[in-house]
Specification:
Serine Threonine Protein Phosphatase 5, Tetratricopeptide repeat; 5 helices; mainly alpha; 118 residues
């Protein structure tokens, strides 16, 4: 656990990353932790904070192919229209078709985050 903390501090220091830029791996307790952070009203403005590459936490969750994290971030109000420095939206940063289509349908207003089946 200490190693993870030190790695997170290192990344934050040198890459302008936040807790939201480090989507959890599949263990349920970590997804619940992300859900708790997102539900904290004081942190809502951090949902779309950008790193040096202009990537949002939603970009990271999509790229790392974590559908539950994508869902939690969308439910929390993360903006799926944010573009990175290469002009890509979060849906363009994943190889997983279900995540890509889910974010696209949410962005278009066709589905709520809770209705998306990844």
């Amino acid at each position: 656990m200490r190693e993870r903390s030190m790695a997170t501090q290192h990344n934050a220091q040198y890459c302008n990353l936040t807790t939201f830029h480090s989507p959890p791996s599949p263990p349920r307790s970590q997804v619940d932790c992300l859900r708790a952070l997102v539900s904290d009203g004081r942190l809502r403005s951090s949902l779309d904070i950008l790193n040096d590459k202009k990537q949002s936490p939603l970009h990271f969750a999509a790229f790392k192919e974590h559908p539950e994290c994508v869902r939690v971030l969308l439910e929390g109000g993360s903006d799926p229209r944010v573009r990175d420095r290469k002009g890509r939206r979060p849906e363009e940063d994943t190889k997983r078709e279900g995540i890509r289509e889910g974010i696209r349908m949410f962005r278009r207003g066709e589905k709520k985050a809770s209705e998306i089946l990844f």
